[in-house]
Every structure is written in C-alpha cells, then in structure tokens.
Amino acid sequence: MTNILISGGSVAGATLAFWARRHGFNPTVVERAPALRDGGYKIDIRGAALEVVDRMGLLDEVRRRGTDMRIARFVDAKGRQMATMSAQLFGGRTGGDVEIMRGDLVHLLYEATRNDVEYLFGESITGLQETPDGVRVSFENGPPRTFDLVIGADGLHSNVRALAFGAESRFLHHLGHHISIFTVPNHLRLDRTEMMHPAPGRSVGMYATRQGDDAKAMFFFASPPRAHERRDLGRQKQLLAEVFAGQGWEVPRLLDAMEAAPDFYLDSISQVRMDHWSSGRVALVGDAAYGPSPASGQGTSLALVGAYVLAGRLALAAGDHTAGFAAYEREMRPFVEQNQRLAASNLKGMVLKSAARIRFQMLMLRLMPRLPGRDRMIERIAEPIRTAATAITIKDYPARPAQPS
C-alpha cells in the first residue's frame, strides 16, 4: 500500500486524505497546530467544488451549516446607510453555491477522515530527502519516517514548498493589498448581516452569521509587500492601527478590540504561481500550489477540486507517481488559471481608489433596483465567477487499490 504524507490538515489536506484513502492509499496528515483550528472566516463553495463535496456525502451537512447571510449594508464615516445589496449578490453566489465558516468545513472533513487516517497534530516537517525507497522525512518532534510520496497542502506560506522548491519569494505574487481578519465583540448586534465602510484605498467590514456575542472584523488596504513583518504579530497590529488611524464609523472600536482578539490574522493578498507543482516524489495542492488569494473567492473551491483530482490521478496512474502528478497538473492548470484571473478585477471593487469612485459605486447600488434590465446586470456581475467555478468537469476516478510507488 502506498504511504502518503500530507502536510496540512485544513481543507486541501483533509480532502486529499479522504480521497486518497478511498483509492486505497495509506495517508498520514501532519498538522503544525496542536488541534483543529476553529473559527476563521466565511468561505464559498461553488460550481465544481459542490460536486466534490456531494461525492464525499457531505453536501447536506455543509448546506445545514451554511451562514445564511441575508444582507450587506454600506455605511459612511458617521454610520449612515449609503446602499444595500443582498448577501448572495455581494458574495457573487448563484444557484446552489454555499457559504460556510472555514472552521465548520474543516471539522466536517476531519470527522469524515479521522477514523481511518493518521493525524499528527503539533508536528511539522523539517527536512525532505529522496531515497531509492521514497522520501525520508524529518520532523520537529518525532523520529524520521519514510513515505512513498509527500504532498504539501500547507497553505500560502507552505513549508513543504520551501523545502522542495525553494524560497517562497519565487512563487508569491503580491496583488498590492493586505487583508486582516479577527474576532470582535458583536456590539452592533448583527444577525446574518454584513456592514461595509469604504474609504479611498481602504475598506473595513464587520459581519456576524447569527446574533450572538462574536462577530468578525475585516480590513482591506492597498500596500506594498511586507514579508519581513509576517511573523511579527506586534508590528502587524501596529501597522493596521497606523493605516486606519483617523477612519470613522466603528473603526476605532474595532481596532481597540484587536488587542484581545484570539485569532488576529494579517497577510498580503497574494497568489501562488508555479511552473510545476511536483518535484520527484513531492507535490503540492491547494493554496500551496496555486493559491488564488482571498480576492478571488475561489481558494476553497480550488482546494477541494485539486485534492479530488490529485488523488484520482494518482490512483489511475497505478503506482507511477510521475505520470499521476503530470496528469493532475494537466487537468487542473486551466481551471486554476481561470480562477486566479478573478482576483484582479474583484480587488478593484473591494478597495476603491478614490472618493469619487466610492460615490459612483454607492449611486449605482442605490439605483440598481430601479434600473431597466436589472436582472441582466446582476447576471453580468455574477457571470465571471460562475464561469470560472464551473470551468472543469469532475471526472469519475474508479476506486481501486493503489500499487506501491
């Protein structure tokens, strides 16, 4: 039986473990965090990814745990409403698309795999060495082990990618913006509502998926790359406070809540672009290989589909991992590139450059319900995402025992 080490226990890693086990492989998942990571932010599952979730038998439960967001409200610096739109249109969702909290999806995937997949929490890979028998893997805490294949499903700043392919600066393409998200008290008592306050070069949001004690604060801002600050939490918070100093609405209160947030997150909005997603017996999947950035809205869907295709192609290759990796890349790359192209256009609408553009956008949102051809306008807005999300056919990969690599 082919032993596969998967680095990363989030969406891509757990999904790959599910399908690898289904195809007769023996997957082990190594996760740096000491336990499953709760919370996170809202994520979308669209198009082809819904088919993957359905084939896993999880679609009904995913829909049951959907956010059920209702409305997005845009407000000025004094909190006065400037425009509204439905949550579905705001998120670019159509048809059966589902929005769910990232932590909820990760828990569902873990529950679907934990009984027949080995999970190593609180552990990290420190070295990879290919041998005639496979890949000898060194760990931060445990003894070395040898696996037939190693897959990096460990996100934008992938450790496996750095070890097997080189410095991330070769592959990360900064899109000129940063994002910050963290939990705050729900002092506005929001209930399935998203609030947005745009300003030139900056945008602040707050949302809650149900009326309760907690909400999420979101900050988007135009900025140059700041890689040297990625691991300096104190400097990240200082940066956010500096960028949004003097902004109105609820911003001062949200920044005050930042210090107590248990899940503060700030990072560049960047894409991963690579010529190849495999090297020898090591390959990448999800954000580690082709992260499209949060601006695309398609990172989760690419992770789900990519994991499904990778496991299926390895199984069809019947032990020839080189052929399996190559087939995976041929099948996924056009889908990835089409979804990555969404990010640049989406960012233009998320962070507006001038007060004049903000006024124009708010005017159009207010007028839209009364404009002739409103439905056609909405269709045109949603069409690029829908087209990209369905730009791959989910094939059948018959379950079969995989031969040793």
UniProtKB/TrEMBL annotation:
InterPro entries xref list: FAD-bd, FAD/NAD-bd_sf, FAD_aromatic-hydroxylase
Q: Indicate the secretion signal residues.
A: none
Domain spans labelled FAD-binding: 2-340
**Which UniProt keywords are listed?**
Monooxygenase, Oxidoreductase
Keyword Oxidoreductase part of the UniProt annotation:
yes
Ranges that cross the membrane: none
Has the keyword Oxidoreductase been applied to this entry? yes
Quote the Pfam families the UniProt record gives. Answer: FAD_binding_3 (PF01494)
Listed GO MF terms: FAD binding; monooxygenase activity
Tell me the protein's name. FAD-dependent monooxygenase
Task: State the species of origin.
Answer: Microbispora oryzae
